[in-house]
From TrEMBL:
The lineage of its organism: Bacteria, Pseudomonadati, Pseudomonadota, Alphaproteobacteria, Hyphomicrobiales. It holds the Pfam family MTS. Residues 32-178 form the Methyltransferase small domain. This is Methyltransferase. PANTHER family: TRNA1(VAL) (ADENINE(37)-N6)-METHYLTRANSFERASE (PTHR47739).
């Protein structure tokens, strides 16, 4: 019998995600690092744009007991995985704080509102947009292609939506490849300020493979380049303790710059 999907444990079994096997995008450390970027005391409303099977948003809900999370996914098959993940018995403790919305992140205006993403509604938006250039080698896997292929104007469209649905002073956080840094900064434009950028390296001396970006709606604060994060020490493949804590929901990767209210 061929196994077509798996149930994967995250945060040492605090929650589980149902994912396709051998095709599509499978969530892992990127999703958990993204989830770690949400820091809050008390109630918070979070939108996970392009949620896939729901790992990042569920990671937020698992770590923050007062977080309500909207899992927004365009592809019907992945949205179904998301709904089925939420419904797993292992996720009963967080399920009532999760809402799945099947919608295109790039919708505008009334169409976006009608899809369930109203203006000025969320405290925090997280996203892990597709990161491969559309000209890269194509994959026959349609699910993976849709999840990974970047198209012109993608960051502009996703960050525009984040700016629309966030409350004034709300935070957007994303994980991407380093080569996307110029597009991300440009897309934030006048919508977001106080950008904090962190480069993630496998080891000291290695080139960065990811960047973490956060910004605040309406802020006029300047960009900050934070200290880099190194995943491993020497030739070891074990995560360094701080990275392991982020990956497993034991701590948040919060902002260092005080949020500035919009003018």
């Amino acid at each position: 019998m061929t196994v077509t999907e798996t149930i994967d444990a995250f945060h040492f079994g605090v929650f589980h995600v149902l994912q396709p096997k051998g095709r599509g995008h499978r969530s892992g450390m990127d999703a958990m690092l993204l989830a770690s970027m949400v820091e809050a005391k008390g109630a918070i409303r979070v939108a996970d744009l392009g949620a896939g099977a729901g790992a990042a948003g569920m990671g937020v809900a698992a770590r923050l007991a007062d977080a309500e999370v909207w899992l927004v996914e365009k592809m019907p098959e992945m949205a179904d995985y998301c709904r089925r993940s939420v419904a797993l018995a292992e996720n009963a403790a967080i399920a009532d704080r999760l809402t799945v919305i099947e919608a295109d992140v790039t919708l505008k205006g009334r169409a976006r509102v009608a899809a369930g993403l109203p203006d000025d509604h969320f405290d925090h938006v997280i996203m892990n947009p597709p990161f491969n250039n559309a000209s890269d080698r194509k994959t026959p896997d349609a699910l993976k292609s849709e999840a990974h292929a970047m198209h012109e104007g993608l960051f502009e469209a996703w960050i525009r939506t984040a700016g629309a649905i966030l409350k004034p002073g709300g935070q957007v956080s994303l994980i991407a490849r380093p080569e996307s840094i110029a597009e991300i900064i440009d897309a934030c434009g006048k919508r977001f300020g106080g950008l904090e950028i962190t480069f993630l390296h496998p080891r000291q001396g290695d080139a960065a493979i990811r960047l973490l970006v956060s910004a605040v709606k309406g802020s006029r604060a300047r960009l900050t380049i934070r200290s880099p994060i190194f995943m491993h020490e020497g030739e070891s493949h074990r995560f360094l303790p701080d990275v392991d804590d982020l990956n497993n929901g034991r701590r948040a990767y919060g902002r260092i710059v005080r949020k500035q209210q919009p003018s």
